[in-house]
Amino acid sequence: MIDNLLRPPRGRPRPVDAVVAAALFACSFPGSLITLPGQDLGIPWWPGVLLAGVSCVALLWRRGRPRATVVVTLGCAAVAAALGCLLTVLLLGPLMVALYSLAVGTDRKTANTFAFSGIAVLVGTGLLSGPTGEPLVLKLLGPAAWLLLPTSLGTVTRLRAAYLDAVQAWAEHAERTREEEALRRVSEERMRIARDLHDVVAHHLVLANLQAGTVARQLSDRTGEASRIASDLTRTTAAALRELKSTVGLLRQDGDADKPLERPPGLAQLPELAASFENAGLEVTVTTEGERGPLSAGADLTAYRIVQEALTNVTKHAAAREAEVRLVYCADRLAVTVADDGGGTRTLPAPPGGGYGVVGMHERARSVGGRIRVGPRPRGGFEVVTELPLEPHPELPLA
Question: 264-399 — its CATH code?
Fold first, then answer.
């Protein structure tokens, strides 16, 4: 707002315009008195003063009314040529400045139209009423050169200003795009960390809850068995703390890129994961079919987390005693199947409001270009079937 108040209104004369007009008057009036060698002017001096004054005063409005300014200065130059004045660069100075302002403030077609019209008027007037001793080449080429020069310079200035504006607009757009991309990546990273925290907490706390209940039931009758389960409970909680530290540690880094991070879990840790469910009353069998292919780090972690979440759901909600994890390596994909037998007694009640486990498994599979199917088995029980690409896949936006 302050800048708008301080900036002179468009169309009104500026102090710099008055300085330019005064300087051009000091040049154009002497230019009207120039003649060819050996010839007299033939007219009084005062018409040159009057025409130069009118042209220079018109330049005060060249920014707001460039077309009218060109018409006035061209008319003064044509009258001077009709009076027999020699069309020099000094005499044509106001018209040249007016054409430059017109080319800067309008389009190329308008500037060229006025420039060529001015050339036609001045050349025609010079041929009819110009000094008799002036060479024909000067009468033809002089006005054309002096009028095309400011028109070309003004057009170049306008195009350069438009180019700079376009570059600035592109830079601002690129900056906004980078900020939006950074926010999107932060949002995706938060979602990934939330899934990891959900998987880690759900898995280990369910096992800890089951092991603690078993210890409480067997503490009085089977002290040795209770002691062993209590040791397993200690290892379960320690594993939970380690995975939480590995996940949350990404949020606490202070920018040190060389700080070592714990390796994320993968399919190589499936035997340890299967063994952790024994004390919860679930026997897990892991089988592998096909030749192992190269698996990206993201797909490896995704497969592990999906198996972990599926087995945790079996322990929490399914009335099952046995579960099977089957890995099938094909030409370009890995199929991971987690199935339970559906027998036994339910160990924990299912939460009435449901949870985010199944949603998280779907999001994990999509993030690495895979797909997942969750549902009951025809012969009883429940299964989770996941297909993941073996080659690294660009992360897809999560719906």
Answer: 3.30.565.10
